[in-house]
Amino acid sequence: MILDASYLFDLMAEDPDAFEKGRALVDRGEMQWLPTPVVAEAYYGVATARSDTTEAALRNRLLGYPRIDVDEEVARTAGTLLANAADRDEGDVGANDAYIAAMAEILDDAVLTANVDDFEALGVDVETY
Question: What pTM does this model have?
Fold first, then answer.
């Protein structure tokens, strides 16, 4: 499962549905991947007034997740997904979501998010909670 920032934010806010989804993923032994663009989004949220989570609390929360970095393959795939969404006039999807979607595409996995529309526009599988 590819984790989106919305899921992490909901976990940190102690959303019971997000917590239960995380428990279900662990129970079935599913790998939970943390894309580095999500790391950037999370630190952005902490550095602004949008969160009362401290940087130390965020760092501790993120420790348990293996990372997926943006490399050339991810960048190429993200560009293609963005272009395809634009060709279908699917709205204005951001580059970070395209990177996250590209990782899902490459790993043949779903994105776990509350932000379903952008990832569906990019044409990748989505799970929510």
Answer: 0.91
